[in-house]
Amino acid sequence: MTKTVQHIILLVLLVAVTITGCRKKLADLYYDADKTVQPSIEKFFTQMLDNDRVHPSYWNVRTFIALHTGVYTQLIGYLNYTTSYQQNAGYTQDRWNDFYRPGTAGDGGNGGIMAHYRLIESLYNSIEDDQQKANAAVFEMAARVVMYDQASQLVDCWGDIPFSEAGRVNTSGGSMLPGFEAASNVYNTILDGLKNAALYFSGATLSPAAHAAFTKQDILLNGQLGKWQRYANSLRLRLLMRLSYVDETRAKTEVLTIINNPDQFPLVDGASNYMPATTDVLQQPLANYVEDLHNALSEVFNYSAPDHLLNKAMKPANDPRIPVMFDKYGRTEGDQFIPNADYNGLPVSFNAEQQQVNLGRYAILDSATFLYNSKLPGIVITAPEVNFLKAEAWERWGGGDAKSAYETAIRQSIAFYYYLNSLNTITRMPLAQPSAAAIDNFIQDDQVSYTGTANELLAKIWLQKWVHFGFLQSVQAWAEYRRTKHPLLQFYPSTLPGYEWPPSRLVYPSSETSYNTNYITVKDKDVRTGRIFWDVK
Length: 537
Fold this sequence. Notes:
Blueprint: H1 3-18, H2 41-49, H3 58-72, H4 89-100, H5 113-126, H6 130-158, E1 161-162, E2 180-181, H7 183-203, H8 208-217, H9 225-242, H10 248-259, H11 276-279, E3 281-283, H12 294-298, H13 307-314, H14 322-325, E4 326-327, E5 330-333, E6 336-339, H15 352-357, E7 364-365, H16 367-371, E8 378-381, H17 383-397, H18 402-422, H19 436-444, H20 454-469, H21 474-484, H22 510-515
Antiparallel strand pairs: 1-2, 3-8, 4-7, 5-6
Helix pairs in contact: 1-5, 2-5, 2-6, 3-21, 5-6, 6-7, 6-8, 6-9, 7-9, 9-10, 10-17, 17-18, 17-20, 18-20, 20-21
Organism: Niastella populi
Pfam families: SusD-like_2
Protein name: SusD/RagB family nutrient-binding outer membrane lipoprotein
C-alpha cells in the first residue's frame, strides 16, 4: 500500500470522527490482528459488524430502548414519570455518534458504521489490481448493505440526516461538514443500492482464497452469499412497505415484483424449513460474551410486563408465547414470597407511585429468555417480519395468499421466541414448544383469526407484527407504529409542559445543532412533533 493511500485512509478516518465533533485515538482498532501496519478491509468489515447497537447490549437497552423506543411503543415496562416522554439528549447523542464514528463498548457502542464504511470504500477504490479488486468487492458490497440498514434506522428516528457527504473529503483534500440530505432521498439511494447489492450477491463468484477470507471475517452470515442476497432483498421489502402510504405506486409495483418472484428475489422468509438460528439474520454474541440484560432492565424498573402487550394483545387469545416472554412474578410479605396466580401486565393507567408500590403484583419479562440470557442474539431481520410484510402487501394489493403468509408469520414468531428461550440452559431448562393443537387454537381465536373487513385484517397483521418485534426490535416497532397507527395504544399523559405525549421523531443532537453549520437547513423541521416523510396516515 502506498503512502498516498495510507494518508487518504487516515484523512477519511479523521473526517468520519470529526462529523460529530468528537476526536479519539483509533489507530489500535484498525490494524490487522498480527500487528502489522497495513490497514485491512477485512478487519474493518468485521469491526463494522461487531455493533452493540445491533446486539442487545447493556448500553443500548438501558439508554436507548428502555428510555426511548421501548417506551414510545409500550413494548417495555416503564414508570409514568413526568420525564417519560422527554428525550435524553446525552443518550440519543450516543446513538447518533455510534452510526457516524467508531468507539469502544465502554463508550456505549463500537459500531461506527459510516466511518468504517468510508474506510472500506476508500481502500477498495484505491486497489489497482483487477483480481485483488474483484476479491475485495464482496467486503465492500456487504459493508454497504450493513451501512444502508443502519442509515435507514437513523432516518426513521430523525428524518433528514448527513448521508452522501458524511465521512468524505472535499476536492482540496480537507475535511468538510456534511450537509443534511432529505430523508426521502436517502431512502431512494438505499433502495437502489440494495437492489444492486442483491443482484451482485446473486451472481458473485469468489476465488477460494477470497471466499475463505470472507467466511472468516463475516461474523454475521458466515460468508453465505445467498443469505446476503436474502438480507438485501428483505431489507428492501421492509423499506418499500415503510413508504407505501406516501408513494404507493412505487411500493406496490416493486413489492409485488419481489414477493411474487421468489426465485429471482429470495427473501428471509423461511419458505422451505424455518429454523431461527439458520434462517433469520441474527448477530450472535461472541464466544466470550457473558453479560445479560437484568441490570439494564431493572435499574429504572423496565422489567415489568407491558399493559397493552400482555393484557390486551396476548392474554385474551391465550397466546402460547406468554410463558417464554413473561414470568408471573410475585411479592414478598415478611419472609414469605407470594407468587402471582396469573400473568398480568402493569397498568399503564397508574401513576408512577402506584406502579412502583405494586410492581410485585404484576408479571415481569421472563428471566430465562430475557433477563439472564447472555446468549441473546442481535436481531437484524427475521422470517416472521418478512411474512407479515408479505401478508400486508397481498391484503392491500392482491396477487398472493395473505392469510397463509399471516398464519405462517405467527407460527414462526412462536418458534422464534421458544428459540430465544432455548438458548439459556443455565437459569432454567428451556420450555417445551407448544403443541400443534395449542398453536392451531391460538390462530383460530377470534382475536387472531384471519377474518373480518380489509381494515380489520390489516389491523391484525400490524398487531401481530408489533407483538413479534417486542422490545428487542422496538426501533422497527416504533417506525411501524407511526406508519400504521396500530396498535391503538393509550398513554398516560405527562404533566411536563411540552412533553405530555411521546414524540413522533427525535430531535437532533447537540453535535449537529452546535457545530454543523448545515444544521440551518433543517432547523425549522427540528421539533419533536415533526413527522418522518413516510408518516402520513
